[in-house]
Amino acid sequence: MSCCDLAAAGQLGKAGIMASDCEPALNQAESRNPTLERYLGALREAKNDSEQFAALLLVTKAVKAGDIDAKTRRRIFDAVGFTFPNRLLTTKEAPDGCPDHVLRALGVALLACFCSDPELATHPQVLNKIPILSTFLTARGDPDDAARRSMIDDTYQCLTAVAGTPRGPRHLIAGGTVSALCQAYLGHGYGFDQALALLVGLLAAAETQCWKEAEPDLLAVLRGLSEDFQKAEDASKFELCQLLPLFLPPTTVPPECLRDLQAGLARILGSKLSSWQRNPALKLAARLAHACGSDWIPAGSSGSKFLALLVNLACVEVRLGLEETGTEVKEDVVTACYALMELGIQECTRCEQSLLKEPQKVQLVSIMKEAIGAVILYLQQVGPEKQKEPFVFASVRILGAWLAEETSSLRKEVCQLLPFLVRYAKTLYEEAEEANDLSQQVANLAISPTNPGPTWPGDALRLLLPGWCHLTVEDGPREILIKEGAPSLLCKYFLQQWELTSPGHDTSVLPDSVEIGLQTCCHIFLNLVVTAPGLIKRDACFTSLMNTLMTSLPALVQQQGRLLLAANVATLGLLMARLLSTSPALQGTPASRGFFGAAILFLSQSHVARATPGSDQAVLALSPDYEGIWADLQELWFLGMQAFTGCVPLLPWLAPAALRSRWPQELLQLLGSVSPNSVKPEMVAAYQGVLVELARANRLCREAMRLQAERRDWRLQQGLLYEPGEGSPTSDPLLPPALPQCVL
Q1: Which of 239, 301, 383, 704, by CA, is between 20 and 30 Å from 21?
Q2: Containing H/E element for 609?
Q3: In the prediction, which pLDDT does 214 show?
Q4: Closest CA to 30 of 72, 80, 82
Q5: 552: Cβ contacts below 8 Å, ≥ 6 apart
Q6: CA 651 distance to own-chain centroid
Q7: What does residue 565 show for φ and ψ, rounded to 5 degrees?
Q8: Residue 521 to residues 487, 513, 524, 705: CA-CA distances in angstroms?
Q9: CA distance linking residue 569 with residue 599, whole number of Å
Q10: What is the DSSP letter of 502?
Q11: 688 to each of 106, 201, 673, 742, how far by Cα in Å?
Q12: Name one Pfam family in it (predicted).
């Protein structure tokens, strides 16, 4: 058989592929073309390759593209089978006068015909050809060879058909198709545009797996696309805006790509554009902001102007999208603009190394305030039927980001919206709890290039906690939150989130947002303890919270790297214990003793005596674990000392327990071993408060303090360590200034 005959036989694949748009009934096809039945019979009865070639040629001549349907294609497959195409794909010997790729081209054409049937596209005999087909995409040869081009087209047809099946992307990724597609695109040979289109589909379907299997090749494509984007002067730059978000890696974006992307976006957004041109650029910028924060924006005047422009455009788009009546909100664009507004909020509140100058910050805050006003107005109109929609969640997120930094402006509007926010957070919390899907409770809202599903459960409370922390300090908002049941909801949320950190859960895989959320909950509860103590006493949810704090702190203080959370739990528990001192749970029960023992451990380990070069006397210094986070810890520590002092007279068993822990003795020993000048006045006041109350509350504490002082050769002259009527306080210049004379 001649080379020309082989090429003609290969056209069977084209007929099958083109026929996907025309599906006449099988009996009609048979009645119109009885000759086809005879040729199919000959194809089935062929005894060798030559006879199969001849029969294929006859079938090709008997079939027109528009006259073949899926059932007829399936009958052709049944007649040919996979054995013949398999040999064609693997043979290295072509007939005399034919290029070596002709047989492979015919084999691919047959596969392309078969793959037009979705059932055959998932056949194991097709799937195991994926590695072979992938090699055809990067094979070298004459770019003008029609047969080679036909083979490449058929190869893409096969791979695209497989990608369209439910598990197809996974098979293609495992078969090395992603790397082959990247190399085909970068080579810019015939069909490279098809390679890019298929890459886009695979990334949209299985982004994580693609990057895991072919990160170097995908980064190379990203570099090429970024460079093209930076240089583009025609409409292609707008098309690239839509493609590039899909090629941003889940890890670090190469710096050269960031430079090219920023430069390209600066040129686009700095021009007068229509919405269809501007919106893809805003979405690309949002993806970069979500992935890199502000690191992709250069420092200096050009970077600050670009960022100001970016946030300004985003705010305008948000207002236009939410305030215009009678038009449908472009949710994907507005959500992208929310991400850019978040970037603006972060930069406006950054004190050091901010890209923005103060006048720019003032201007942007004013502009963002107007956009947030539009968000509040939109949320006021959200009905129960829309509360599960992703866009509502995104709107609550941006409002939460704003309230975390600014609650003084738009106060009236925020207060009016608080009932909705509490109900919304409660709805999402209860549904997530019923589904027992705790992993969703700590998920972050992603600016994704793919469309979310019909519902998007999210941890709305985590987004609102910082703002509520500020609002619970103010009388009006706090009363609304209490009236709407926010404290009870927060208690339930805290207990649920705490379960994620309890023994049996792998805390190493939890995002930081879980622990940060727990800390912020503690801050809200601290505000309520101070401003609404009656609520703590009467609401049963705080009794449950107190029980959890008591049982959890002993293990928490022993865990490395969780000192700040332990500080929050200890301080909150001490303040609540002062209000709930009559509770049976605090009357010397094992849980209460364990809690106060752990609280003493937290308070007592903050400072140590540290030797100083060239001096015989040590100084009072922070212990290593506390030193690095003291800026965040010190307020909690001082408040905890004050709260512990307040608990001593309310809980008669506490002073003896403190004595058994040897905290008073060790504290006196510490103060006696350091230079008096190294003890700051606020430390003196904190230690004085604890020692005075312990001495007042218990005779054994006074005796222990006296013995400790005598060991240091001190003389006790102050009356607070005597029973009433014993001795009289006098001044003694020999007392160490580190310990106030009102104590000793």
Answers
A1: 239
A2: strand 607-610
A3: 95
A4: 72
A5: 498, 502, 569
A6: 45
A7: -65, -40
A8: 10, 12, 5, 38
A9: 9
A10: S
A11: 93, 69, 17, 8
A12: Neurochondrin
Give 599: exposed, middle or buried? Use CB within 10 Å, 0-12, 13-18, 19+. buried
- Enter the tokens of residue 543: 């009794």
Render 409-472 in DSSP notation, one character per residue.
Answer: TTHHHHHHHHHHHHHHHHHHHHHHHHHT-HHHHTPPPP--SSPP-S-----HHHHHHHHHHHHT
29-48 burial: b if 16+ Cβ within 10 Å, else e: beeebeebeebbebbeebee
CA-CA-CA-CA torsion sign (683, 685, 686, 687) = positive
Q: 331-343 burial, b if ≥16 CB within 10 A, otherwise e?
A: bbbbbbbbbbbbb
8 A C-beta contact, residue 145 and residue 99: yes
CA atoms of 219 and 212, how far apart (whole Å): 12
Q: Which amino acid is at 512?
A: D
Residue 488: helix, strand or coil by DSSP?
helix
The two tokens of residue 505 are: 């859960």
Joined tokens for residue 111? 């596969």
User: Rounded to whole angstroms, how far apart are CA atoms 318 and 341?
Assistant: 9
- Of the candidates 176, 155, 181, 172, which has an alpha carbon nearest to the alpha carbon of residue 206? 172
- Give, as one character, the DSSP assignment of residue 621: E
In the chain, the N- to C-terminal Cα span, in Å, equals: 114
**What are the per-10-residue average pLDDT scores of the chain (744 residues)?**
47 40 38 65 70 68 58 71 77 66 80 84 90 90 82 93 94 95 94 95 94 95 96 91 92 93 94 88 94 91 94 95 80 93 94 89 95 96 87 93 92 96 92 47 38 52 94 96 96 91 66 88 96 94 95 93 95 97 95 97 95 86 95 96 96 95 92 90 93 92 81 43 37 35 38
**CB-CB contact of 311 with 341 (8 Å):** yes
Residue 418 contacts residue 481 (beta carbons within 8 Å): yes
Token reading at 187: 């080579």
State what percent of residues in the chain have pLDDT above 70: 81
Residue 570 token pair:
């200890």
Q: What is d(CA 304, CA 233) in angstroms, rounded to the nearest whole number?
A: 24
C-alpha to C-alpha distance for 442 and 513, rounded to whole angstroms: 7
Q: What are phi and psi of 609, to 5 degrees?
A: -90, 125
Helices (H) and strands (E) in the chain, counts: 37, 2
Cα separation, 88 vs 70, whole angstroms: 23
Report which residue type is found at 184.
A
Distance CA 17, CA 165 (A): 17
d(CA 528, CA 491) in angstroms, rounded, equals 12
Secondary structure class of 407 (helix, strand, coil):
coil
| The token pair that represents 515 in the structure block | 């622990």
**How far apart (Å, rounded) are the C-alpha atoms in residues 523 and 575?**
12
Reduced to 3 states (helix: H, G, I; strand: E, B; else coil), residue 674 is strand
pTM for the model:
0.81
The helix (H) or strand (E) run that includes residue 622 is: strand 619-622
Six token digits for residue 104: 């492979």
Helix H or strand E segment including 620? strand 619-622
E-assigned strands of 84-214?
Answer: none
Buried b (16+ CB within 10 A) or exposed e, 453-479: eeebbbbbbbbbbbbbbbbbebeebbe
Bridge partners (DSSP) of residue 622 are: 607
Instruction: Please report the pLDDT score of residue 201 as a whole number.
Output: 95
DSSP 298: P
Phi first, then psi, for residue 552 (nearest 5°) are -95, -35
CA distance 395 to 183: 41
- Bridge-partner residues for 409, per DSSP? none
